[in-house]
């Protein structure tokens, strides 16, 4: 579920592009008054499908990114005051991770660091059949705007990456991000320097941060995230990096393996079942992109060798992955 704040400026952009928003909204069970209630929750699948339909109706291939272009920190709602007064960008991103279930429980984020470089990865967790080009560009665009709001002119990411193909016109991407933008990449996210994460936020006020956190944690459900959803998101992010073991996932969620297993048992599912579900979700993305070799697909899905991937795939689909891909691509022509 996502807050209706995710659709901030949707109506204005539709008007600019000459599209009737009421007609599009009604197709997905939404209305203009609903968008004016920022705390209302909407299934993320509906948001993703609405954005794709609007991009098609308007002929604007960068609709989601253009929505992100004018976002302000205040569009995050009640949590914006807490984010504004975090001492560093790292603290702000950790805060988003802590309260993600109140912002958008379908949004997954992971921060991977080396000595000098950081990759901030984001994913939208919806049914694999749901197109999400617009929603992921909206999410990455909003993340970029958040970083800029906290760091000001010093915010200069090294690059931005998307797993989908490039649009015909790159002008909007260049204008929004101001850096190299990679398409058909292995992740969705932003690459920056470690120093950016640790840079001091000049507007941070510790007293206001403490007040904002106390206020925010008093809100209903502030500290109640779904373990099932959190584990699924962690696997989704860690699997392409070959780190989606139960130990790694438990560590990323701040608990031990036994606690994680017990909570999953209470939800009626095992870690291996979730792992397999996520693997199948990601499979379609990688197999339908001809830029990924089958060896790369095997690695991204956590297989140590292409042969083990081929055996698993054949057992699941009744044919070798090369045959499946050939048939799929021929049908799409």
TrEMBL record:
Q: Could you tell me the superkingdom of the organism this chain comes from?
A: Bacteria
GO CC annotation, single:
cytosol
Lineage of the native species?
Bacteria, Pseudomonadati, Pseudomonadota, Gammaproteobacteria, Pseudomonadales
Q: Which UniProt keywords apply?
A: DNA-binding, Transcription, Transcription regulation
Provenance organism: Pseudomonas laurylsulfatiphila
Transmembrane spans = none
Q: Which GO terms describe its molecular function?
A: DNA-binding transcription factor activity; transcription cis-regulatory region binding
* PANTHER family the record matches: HTH-TYPE TRANSCRIPTIONAL REGULATOR GADX
Instruction: Enumerate the spans annotated as HTH araC/xylS-type domain.
Output: 229-327
What name does UniProt use for this protein? Answer: AraC family transcriptional regulator
